[in-house]
Queue: 2 jobs
Job 1
Amino acid sequence: MDVQKAIFDDIKRKQTIIIHRHQRPDPDAVGSQVGLAKILQQAFPEKKIFAVGKQIPGLAWLAEMDEVEDAQFDSALILVLDTANEPRVDDQRWRRGQEVIKIDHHPDDDPFGDLSWVEEDASSTSEMIVDFANRFDLKVSKEAARVLYAGIVGDTGRFLYSDTRPHTMIVTAQLMETGIDAVAVNQMEDEMPLPVARLTAYLYDHLTISSSGAAHVILGAETIKSFNLGDAGTASLVPMAGKIDSVKTWAIFEEQDDHSYRVRLRSKGPAISGLAREHNGGGHPLASGAKAKDLDEVKLMITKLETLTAKDK
């Protein structure tokens, strides 16, 4: 089946289209979501097209979310972007929709939706949205290009990651040719609030690096609260350990209010997605997330990370 054509046919048929993304969004989640909304709004001005989810102050410079009444969902086509599994979808009203379509670039460990278009080799879901627009001759406005560019920049780590393909650069050039201020977007994505900068200093001071190159840091709930991050969160902290030349893999353990731990796993070489799946998570081979129920599970994950890193020598 030509899944892209099937998706486009559904879009043409439906009058109300509501676009979702994952919780705790990053620039690709918001960029692909809002970029697609703007593309479809321009192509089909007679339709009702919304982008929904929790408004994140730290991403307000990128886009604002729409307010949608519950009743709108009952007859809607639901598009869920950049979301690997059902529990991570932001705004659970998506389940009320008439039809659900999943569009994503993460490993498809949790297939869901009536239609699913997943491209694991794509740098980002934003890149996929540009490809979709190009295929069906949909105009990518300067406004849409700006948020899609931000999504690609965010998910490629400023084009540092291995999923940056030649095609990624072609798509990026297309977006830049619309006249967007790429430098301004780059600067916004590179900046961090002062509390996050101070927490970054804490991370470097408390980072443990094994002889194999596996690194980790455990951030207690009280420690995180003491930095008064507000809505800034810790996402911009994640790549920092990888800037150290001796670090090959790393894990950041963040204690939650129930004393479980959110785990962010990253790697410069050995795949860590298998480790993530073993601990209630998943993701890309070099960028994954997981959960640990307590410190004992945290210690087990640290041991496993060191083992798989040592085997990669």
Note: The first strand starts at residue 16 and ends at 20.
Job 2
Amino acid sequence: MIQAIVFDVDDTLYDQQQPFKNAVYQIVPDFCEGDMHDLYIRFRHWSDELFPKVLTGEWELVTMRNYRIQQSLVDLGYEAISDQLALHFQAIYEDELDHITLHDEVRKTLDFLKENDIPMGIITNGPTDHQYKKIIQLDLLHWIQPENVIISQATGFQKPEREIFQLAEERFGFDADTTLYVGDSFENDIVGAKSGDWQALWFNHRLRDIPCGEAAIYDVELTDFQQLYPAICGIFAPVTL
């Protein structure tokens, strides 16, 4: 029986594509609307691919941030943008992130979990200051205790590494076999959670395919924000009876 739940942040608790989209249009005004989803997926790919280099000190954070938007545009056949324009994109993107809000269904879900005393936590990849700023903007500490928040840069580990999930078990006092992890990335969230023997809910609202060669190892898949609240209520109903 599931007794605790841990969430990813980016594109799980809020719509990360909207601030990204707003920033893209300010640096590439004629960007094709039909390419936006694919660009966002490439951007997430390069973020996940390159952030380990930041953790090891091989790359500077600013270099990684410049490269991910530059290469994402090139991947889709657009002209490469300068480092200066890439820095401008990052500044706009960060400003847009200052206005992110929880999806209504996420808020309902968190309210339900808190009202029923379900233990909650967060594991998120990324720079410590950057991710914590999002957590504050989303007011997530209203539902989740600060000591139940893990940000990868502060640990030396990152999803999908098993160690970050084991660290969460120790810090949060959760048991792997009774904890559910909820995230949008198959590679980071689902593979990572299952490597630690956690239960895993793939919040696949971007309708991504399972990576080639991978098995459908998740326990639950949801494809729309509207499915989140009833699904979580159903999972934890036995606990609240």
Note: The mean pLDDT is 95.
